[in-house]
Amino acid sequence: MSDAAPEALRPGTARPPTPSPPSGPDGERRASALLASLVPLLAEWLPRQRWFAGKGRPITGFALVSATELLPRSSGGTAPGLLHLLVRAQQPGAPGVSPGTEDCYQLLLGVQDTLPPHLAPALIGRPAGGPLHGRTVYEGLADPRLAALLLERLRVPGRLGRLRFSREPDVSIPPGLVPRLLSAEQSNSSAVYGDAFILKLFRRVGPGVNPDLELPRALAKTGCARVPAPAAWFEAEPPGTGGEPVTLGVLQPYLAGSADGWQLALGALAVRADFTASARALGHATAEVHQALAEALPTAVLRRPQLEALAAGMIHRLEATADAVPALRPYRAALRATYEEFAALGRDGRTCRAQRVHGDLHLGQALRTAEDGRWSLIDFEGEPARPLAERRRPQPVARDIAGMLRSFDYAAAVGHAAGTDWAERARAAFCEGYAAVHRDPREDPCLLRAHETDKAVYEVLYEARHRPDWLSVPLSAIRRLVPLGGPAK
After folding, report:
1. Based on the domain organization, do 422 and 461 belong to the same domain?
2. Model pTM?
3. N vs C: which end of the chain shows fewer Cβ within 10 Å?
4. Cβ distance 248 to 201 under 8 Å?
């Protein structure tokens, strides 16, 4: 394992994270050749990845932010090399949103002369030139040898080029844990090590501490046991002395023997079993986490300007979605009235408490252990499509509650219970459990309805783009949520 300096980088022209300066003309030429050789491979491979955020828009270019050799590649033999890259994908902006975007992605490239058959699905391609000419490049996390290397780096904190590996001082990470890559890839990639730890790699990254590191660490300091505490993590340090580090990955305890709330809800629906007791316990757990977050991190009071700004953001998302999805247009005026009613709270002198929240709470983000039936919450990254600064902003807890209430609707639809009272009973039980610890969210119906409507509008756009057959699920919620009088004529 080498601690050699990272390959020199080519300066870019896009927004942060800022590229490292090249280490002389030779280093700049090498970085330029590396990027040029990978461009045709990445242009074809990146859009096929579940975590690539720019689907539907062409890639017009790439900029190399950093390149770090985690394991040098050797000539001959079967030992792989591992190259860590941060790469910007340059794309035109979405219609009506922005003139252009340059999302930064974290890539782990395995390098071998010949790829073994069991790694064939991980193939990215074979560069036609540059420093990797004649080698095979593939998704490095799929190779157990390279995934094990990442764990070793986290076991022994330190720096490698611009990468910094950290570990909680009181945590012991045994050597030799066998890794396995989880197949349920979403906006990130995860590997489990011997049923003891799980490593989440963030794929779309930017400057600032990721909430999935920040919030669980803060909760651990309060003694909250509802969220697995980070054991180790790694970051990319900005060049020079300014700027924030980029969170790249977090290692946490793996809750072996647990099942997520989505699986449990569908299992209950399959046999028409009652789910209210589980929903009530989940509401209780959610309220405990919210209380601990309010204790650990700063809170805020939202007054008229902030409430009007929140409502304006909701109206903007509604208008953009209605423009993109014709099925939502009949409800546009009625839904706008919901948001305007929310904004009116501030004009009437009402305030709303805001704090750090989960940001993307649903049944799949809750785990229940079989041994004691205890609920835990995971994945505090928030909605990856939203800017990191927005995800780290204090918000009403209604945002999380609305996400979970919408998740019960989805479970009922998938479990063929739409039209029954299954979802309504689960929603009520969740709020009851929450109210046993925290303020009952149903006491602020305008606040809750606005956030649930905003979530349903988000789902309409998502389903229209990615799963058109599911569009009826959020549209059913839209029809339920519109104010009395129904859609505009």
Report:
1. yes
2. 0.88
3. C
4. yes
